[in-house]
Amino acid sequence: MSDLPRKVHIKEEGPREGFQIEKGPIATQRKIELIDALSETGLAHIQAVSFVNGKRVPGMADAEAVVAGIRMKPGVHYEALWLNEKGLERAIAAGRLHLEGNISMCASEKFLQVNYNRSFESNIAYAHQVLQSCLARGIPVRRGQISAAFGCNYQGDVPAATVLDLVERIREIGAAHGVAVDELLLADSMAWAVPAQIKRTVGAIRERHPDLRIALHLHDTRGMGIANAYAGLEMGVDSFDASVAGLGGCPFARHRGAAGNVCTEDLVFMCHEMGIETGIDLDRLIECAVLAEDIVGHPLPGSVKSGGSLAGLRQGAS
Amino acid sequence: MSDLPRKVHIKEEGPREGFQIEKGPIATQRKIELIDALSETGLAHIQAVSFVNGKRVPGMADAEAVVAGIRMKPGVHYEALWLNEKGLERAIAAGRLHLEGNISMCASEKFLQVNYNRSFESNIAYAHQVLQSCLARGIPVRRGQISAAFGCNYQGDVPAATVLDLVERIREIGAAHGVAVDELLLADSMAWAVPAQIKRTVGAIRERHPDLRIALHLHDTRGMGIANAYAGLEMGVDSFDASVAGLGGCPFARHRGAAGNVCTEDLVFMCHEMGIETGIDLDRLIECAVLAEDIVGHPLPGSVKSGGSLAGLRQGAS
Question: How many CA atoms lie within 13 A of B31 on its CB side?
């Protein structure tokens, strides 16, 4: 089965994923430098920062300053992550940001317990509360998201049926507040997915919810990121999170679990070579990847930034 | 279209691909140590060395000593690469090796010119000569191989039609010597392939030559290795070259073109997670990947060696 989209939308999450995990202190100005450079590539969505506890996540302590310093490019949506009411208030106060809420579920009850001390049912209640809070502030919500959608280190495999049930719950929660959920983000939070599974789970959802636009958030811990993205493309998925240079983890840290999102320029390279538009200038994006490596001061996992695109080779050839 | 095989065959090329490219002198004993460890994983085919000019490729100057030192594991085929008559004679003299010839074409005439100073027609003549020489020595030949099958840095894109023509020529050359070619290796020598192209080219060959077993040799320079392997699996390809830990190149060398084969343990991980047998013990293979990194003394690109398999997590979960 192949149903490649003609155009895909990529949300760049490198600055947020990367700078929150990097150990070395990185100057605010250099974070802004990367975001500004990414703004010139054609990317329409850039997740710039997260509003989290700066004591726990020192790399995000300067989130407000980063947002304030961005050279706003018209047409680019600068986004942010927040995990609670306080974070949301900071995001609103920062201004300049494109804010959207979502209805967030987790396919692993054990993960919910361990990380958030919430049961499945209390998480449902919490989702109602978050939704209400967004709507009360005039922040639009149209997207659901399911973390651990393909497997969980605590709970093990996640069957497609579990994910399907959660999609129903997400739509019910939305409906209870007059929100029509028409987008769904599936996150392979702990890098359990393989391509055949992406096809099974996405296929099951598309069959039951053909009106739902599906997006994928893929981690590359086990090297499956690009192959999983390809499987998604073949199922008609046209929306991906990605991270320039693979920012967000270091595969050479040796400690398990450390790995970034699928690499933006590798994903863009694959799309372009298969005739799928992204609206992104690959050569400029590669320059951003090289810049990202310079900023963090160590090698990052993306391949195309060192392997090179084929444009120059094609010109030189024949 | 999906036609996943039930079992795939993997030829391990890490020792040959890796030790020929590594700069630092590596002790013969350590090369043997890796080959011996790989022999205990269930791998049935290990390309141990190449018999090439030791002055040009110092890492292979000890090829005979490596072969002599292997602790031969019953059931494992130890193989070698050679590029000319002299190399073949050395391979025969070394003994212990499983030798097979092949009929080798290149999809790029410019690549042939630049690297071998041969025209397309003189390359055909050379293939006849190599085949004759193998048969005269009692070395079996059943496989054709096409390098630059998906694109070439000198010549640019390679259409499936070019590859199809070469398959015809290979079979004609074989037939002229009474050899029935029933295997075909397609090599993405310069890492131009993307998954959709793998499907197009493999599909075109399978349609015209349904009796031909197709194998893929995929380089990972642009991060497409595993995705290309998946596309091959979906087309029913059940034979792959691969390189433990991604030995054979360093993606952080920054100079373009340096990259290893698709990583064996990442490929095995993907296959097992999709229910495809390989006959290989993934945990032992991961130990070999860690050993390979220790031997070369720098990080190697494979992911699963640091991300870990899921077996332990599954056991701990639920």
Answer: 30
Query: Nearest CA of chain B to the CA of A263: how many Å?
Result: 9
CATH code: domain of residue A46: 3.20.20.70
| Active-site pick, B152, B250, B263, B271 | B250
Q: How confident is the model at residue B254 (pLDDT cuts 50, 70, 90)?
A: very low
Residue positions counted in chain A: 318
Mean pLDDT for chain A overall: 94
Which of the residue ranges A68-82, A158-172, A233-247, B255-269 would you say has the lowest mean pLDDT?
Answer: B255-269
Name the residue range of residue B203's domain: 101-242
B134 has catalytic annotation: no
Is B254 a domain residue?
A: no
What's residue B2's pLDDT?
61
Q: Which residues pair with A216 in a beta bridge?
A: A186, A240
A260 located within any domain: no
In a domain? residue B82: yes
Please tell me whether residues A191 and A173 are part of one structural domain.
yes
| CB burial string B21-46: b at 16+ within 10 A, e below | bbeeebebeebbbbbbbbbebbbbbb
pLDDT digits (tens, 9 = 90+) for B193-221: 999 999 999 999 999 999 999 999 999 99
- Please give the angle made by the CA atoms of B109, B110 and B114, to the nearest 5 degrees: 120
